[in-house]
Specification:
The structure holds 2 protein chains of 2 kinds. The longest helix of chain A has 17 residues. Chain A is built from 8 helices and 4 strands. Chain A folds into 2 domains: 62 residues, Orthogonal Bundle (Arc Repressor Mutant, subunit A), CATH 1.10.10.1590; 88 residues, Glutaredoxin (3-Layer(aba) Sandwich), CATH 3.40.30. Chain A is of the alpha+beta class. Chain B has 3 domains: 205 residues, Rossmann fold (3-Layer(aba) Sandwich), CATH 3.40.50.11540; 89 residues, Ubiquitin-like (UB roll) (Roll); 90 residues, de novo design (two linked rop proteins). In chain B, helix 7 links the parallel strand 2 and strand 3. By secondary structure, chain B is α/β, with parallel strands linked by helices. In chain B, strands 8-7-11-9-10 form a 5-stranded mixed sheet, with helices on one face. In chain B, strands 3-2-1-4 form a 4-stranded parallel sheet, sandwiched between helices. The chains are: A alpha+beta, B alpha/beta.
């Protein structure tokens, strides 16, 4: 991919230009790093800090505040089930249990093959169309427990198709 | 009364994510009109329209804008910041505005920027809203290419997963690249906000309403809705209702009309038990209050708040202790940790509610829970602590018998509650090998 040809440092410089203060680019810079590494390993913090003129400790202090930054490795696919009130009222628990059964992991865990990390999340903002499930940050709405095997097959199948192509 | 839509108007008939389509329905004509007006005149219009903020607090938009110093009164840049960090449980209206009428939001921003003399707009969009970010970015590219920005820059800034960043000063901290912890006020953002400069912070729906106010004129806009709640709102309807979704209705519509006429009534033939009328942070209403009007004053009279306009319908399968527990868990998870009453109090609330749900609590525990709520209310820098204490205290107040029954026999629903066993998110940062590696 063409974006990968540029260095993380250069990408962060582009973002810096949007703000009057370089520190404002901390969240975007961390996101760019996470897109490269899949999570935020120590070298990611060092690179981001260097590009921003901050310390790695500062960057980590910021990252640890926000749920979307991964301070531990995650699977290739992130499965996030909203379990806040509106989704819970319409069966989020059953959807979550279906994912647990299909994937053989509990929330917060990654499958042994490293393919899926399952998480529960707070309100995703799709309340009227619950249960909301985000797969790699793409929302699926009105998900029921019965939909779960099909969703996972689709994610796995989409990948097989991409590999074949 | 099926009122005309203002914010979502035209979105069902056309693809208003496209600039050409938006212009075909008169899009950006209000901006042209506004730019022919003096900023002071535009501010007067906003004031006269009676528009109140749609994020939750309901502060009059024109008044907030009038607190910002005029360009000749300050050496500093003036910022317009749009709060698109929609995260209040039950609320998903700003998301629909962004994915269906992004140009209307941008037009509202440009009009408001003209009114306060700002050249710099930041839209802080919650990190989870990836699709909405992409739609908004594409719309902004079109607006830029069509030369409509008029020298104003609009930067889309994505959050990274933190409810608290919807609080305006936490949002500013986050936008400055810090942990999203609220600031103490004063100074208020109008005087010292983003980068210690004058800043106006408005919600997405508020901004998307502005073009219509300019088009109609304030007096005409103010005829819509009811006293103290002018215009329409995009109500987010969710929970145990047949047709959940966003419904833009004139203010003053009753909950009954929203839930039964628009939402198709209670799902699965169940019975209505309770209604959360303004997002999970507001006090609950009981089923017999279903004729309450959706407007600021009526909701206050009924003992609740209109908040973000998120109506959560709860049927008779829901255990109110479990509801309280789930709501308290959420606010505990999202507490930024800065103020002790909120950081410690939300934890206490969760512990006591767990004990009540398990049937292991005494009368003293229930009294203690109310005491903890009382010690949070009004004692923190921002409203997050209140957002946990207010609803839970209201569940106890209005469903006292159910709480008492828990003390005597444990949960009367015997595992049949719709919320039974529901998982709160696990602590995402419970242990970090990175922390070990970096600090080594």
């Amino acid at each position: 991919m063409s974006t990968q040809e540029r260095s993380l440092h250069d990408e962060i410089q582009d973002v810096l230009a949007l703000y009057p203060s370089s520190r404002s680019a901390t969240l975007p810079a961390l996101r760019l790093a996470q897109e490269r590494y899949g999570w935020l390993p120590p070298e990611a913090f060092r690179e981001v800090a260097e590009a921003l003129g901050e310390t790695p400790a500062y960057c980590m202090a910021v990252a640890s505040f926000y749920d979307m930054f991964h301070l531990e490795p995650v699977g290739r696919h992130l499965v996030e089930v909203c379990t806040n009130v509106s989704c819970a009222l319409v069966g989020a628990q059953q959807v979550l249990e279906a994912f647990e059964a299909e994937l053989g992991v509990h929330p917060g865990q990654t499958t042994e093959d490293g393919e899926f990390t399952l998480r529960t999340i707070e309100c995703a903002g799709g309340c009227g169309w619950g249960t909301v499930v985000a797969i790699d940050h793409r929302y699926r709405e009105r998900v029921t427990a019965g939909d779960v095997p099909g969703i996972l097959a689709e994610v796995r199948g989409g990948e097989a198709a991409a590999d074949a192509g | 009364m099926p009122a005309e839509r203002i914010v979502l108007a035209g979105a069902d008939e056309r693809d208003l994510t496209k600039l050409a389509e938006y212009r075909a329905v008169g899009g950006f004509e209000s901006l042209a009109k506004a730019r022919r007006m003096e900023p002071a005149q535009l501010l007067d219009e906003l004031l006269a329209s009676g528009l109140r903020g749609r994020g939750g607090a309901g502060f009059p938009t024109g008044r907030k804008a009038s607190f910002v110093p005029k360009p000749d009164q300050t050496q500093k840049p003036i910022y317009l910041v749009v709060n698109a960090d929609e995260s209040e449980p039950g609320t998903f209206k700003d998301r629909e505005i962004m994915f269906s009428v992004p140009h209307r939001l941008i037009e509202g921003c440009l009009i408001t920027a003209h009114a306060i003399g700002s050249r710099n707009v930041f839209i802080y969009i919650r990190g989870e809203y990836l699709h909405e970010f992409e739609v908004l970015r594409a719309a902004l590219d079109e607006v830029r290419a069509a030369d409509l920005l008029g020298g104003v820059t609009i930067v889309l800034h994505r959050g990274a997963g933190a409810y608290i960043c919807g609080e305006e000063t936490a949002l500013l901290e986050s936008l400055e690249g810090k942990r999203g912890q609220p600031r103490s006020k004063p100074p208020f953002p109008a005087i010292s906000g983003l980068y210690a400069s004058p800043s106006l912070i408005n919600n997405v729906e508020t901004m998307a309403t502005v073009p219509k106010i300019v088009e109609l004129g304030a007096a005409e806009y103010a005829k819509r809705g009811v006293e103290n709640s002018a215009g329409t709102r995009v109500y987010s309807l969710s929970g145990n209702v047949v047709n959940g979704g966003n419904y833009e209705l004139e203010n003053g519509t009753t909950l009954r009309e929203l839930i039964y006429d628009h939402g198709g009534g209670i799902a699965n033939g169940r019975k209505l038990k309770a209604i959360i009328p303004g997002g999970s942070s507001v006090p609950v209403l009981t089923a017999d209050q279903v004729d309450t009007q959706l407007d600021f004053d009526s909701m206050a009279e009924a003992g609740s708040m209109l908040g973000s306009g998120a109506v959560i319908v709860i049927d008779d399968r829901c255990c109110m202790v479990q509801l309280g527990l789930r709501v308290a868990q959420f606010y505990m998870h999202e507490s930024c940790g800065k103020c002790t009453p909120c950081r410690e109090g939300t934890r206490w609330m969760v512990q006591i509610l767990n004990k009540i749900e398990e049937g292991a609590a005494s009368q003293g525990d229930l009294d203690l829970l109310l005491d903890v709520c009382d010690r949070i209310l009004g004692k923190c820098l921002c409203p997050l602590g209140d957002a946990a204490a207010m609803p839970v205290a209201s569940y106890i107040d209005r469903f006292r018998d159910e709480f008492q029954a828990h003390l005597e026999h444990g949960c009367p629903m015997n595992g049949e509650s719709s919320l039974d066993g529901i998982f709160a998110p696990v602590d995402q940062h419970h242990h970090s090998p990175v922390a070990d590696a970096i600090t080594r």
